[in-house]
Amino acid sequence: MMAAASLLGTVGISGWQWIVGHRSEVWSRFLEHVELTVIAVVVGFLISFPLAVWAHRNRRAYAPITWVAGLLYTIPSLALFVILIPITGLTVLTAEIGLVSYTLLILIRNVVAGLSAVPEDVKEAARGMGYTDGELLWHVELPLALPAIIAGVRIATVSTIGLVTVAALIGKGGLGQFILEGLQIFFKAEILLGTVLSVAFALAADGVLLLAERALTPWARGRTIRVRQIEPPRKAGVPAV
Amino acid sequence: MHTFGQVFQWLTDPAHWSGSDGIPVRVLQHVEISAVALVAAALLAIPIGLLVGHKHRGAFVAVSIANVGRSVPSFAILSIAFLIFLGVAPSFAFGFGPTVTALFLLAVPPILTNTYVGVQAVDPDMVEAARGMGMAEPDVLRRLEVPLAAPLIMAGLRTSAVTVVATATLAALIGGGGLGRYIVDGFHTADTVKVVSGAVLVAVLAVATELLFAAIEKAATPRTVSASAARH
């Protein structure tokens, strides 16, 4: 914290003047950051959701799907962006392919975990009431899996916001562009500007999604605490991090 | 597409496999930076995670560190570490120092949370039983909680290791070594083949790291389970 405070001190008057003078650029790069993030998470979700439902229904599909998603997740973002350059060039498409690839593992794992956690007797009851598989998914499994799904969207969003800064190296980095430029000319104000704004954006996005989860699952409020007290603690499993 | 043929040629060219800018040297630098950061992070995060999990206290702090850790871009952490070194010790600002510092900071949160969650999730009844059998607190931790939490601790190390290897690539931006050198130098000379070759090497190293740690994780799991089962 001390180091951070002393760093902020060294932004200096010229640094603040620079920031004020570049207001419109700050705004447009922030918007670019938002756009890159939203497209990546939305497209990532549109790909992940059907795959996750398929993997949930068809246990044999789970391993290969997560294997491929895991491989994409493991390849470093910078490397993936760069490998794509000969194919798609220095374009938004290159950035998005990389960003979307990263959301897949997080989203698939969380959706499957959420769907799998729906109690068997609840599904049995719904089937007994004459629900078809589709109705069961939309009216029973999805609502109950919603907290886990949104948890996945939160992790994917926050990770993507961080990864967008790396895309600055291929010229599509939103606020990361400030970090890169500052690093190249040793300009502290620019690096700190890019960092502070992207962290603030990540925390704000996380907060908004948390509020969305609360609004979408009113029945879960207060109940989780009671459930936790009654149920024995779960066996250690790999958390969806 | 024809770039990829050239990349294959680049990677198999004997000239790129020797000297101070050769692939073996760059791989070693990359692994060295990553290993130092990972070991340092493990030495700090595992004891703290064990303590917090055992005492069932400080959970909020541990979880907050993980959340904040995830929201700060790795690129930003590296840049800030570089700036701090530049201000405090300018002669160490280029390369090793700030890179290892940044990678260390990135590696701590996953190890810390996984260790904490692993220990904290051990069945309280088993802990009570162990105490009832006369086990002292250090023994409860060492003989019961650590073995049961081992798979999760390993999973945390694996996450951190892959992140660290991936991010070590960015070290080249601040004058460091490692495989990122090919990407950054290639960019500066508009040598796409070199850039893509570097990226392919980084990707291979990251996947190899993942597979290595997955194997370690697997090896740790059945032994712990059977060992803890045998003890009870």
Question: What does this protein look like?
Answer:
The complex is a heterodimer of chains A (241) and B (232). By secondary structure, chain A is mainly alpha-helical. Chain A has helices at 2-9, 12-21, 23-57, 59-74, 77-88, 92-116, 120-128, 133-166, 176-185, 188-216, 223-230. Chain A has one domain (25-216): MetI-like (MetI-like fold), CATH 1.10.3720. Chain A has 11 helices and no strands. In chain A, α3 (23-57) packs antiparallel against α8, α5 (77-88) packs across α6 (92-116) and α8 (133-166) runs antiparallel to α10 (188-216). The radius of gyration of chain A is 21 Å and the shape is elongated. Chain A starts with a helix and ends in an 11-residue tail after the last helix. The relative contact order of chain A is 0.12. Mean pLDDT of chain A is 84; it is low at 224-241. Chain B is mostly helical. Chain B has a single domain (2-231), classed as MetI-like fold, CATH 1.10.3720. Chain B contains 9 helices and no strands. Chain B has helices at residues 2-12, 23-55, 59-71, 74-88, 96-120, 124-132, 137-167, 180-188, 192-231. Chain B is elongated, with a radius of gyration of 21 Å. Chain B starts with a helix and ends with a helix. The model of chain B is unreliable at 226-232 (pLDDT under 50). Chains A and B meet through α1, α4, α5, α8 and α9 of A and α3, α4, α5, α7 and α8 of B.
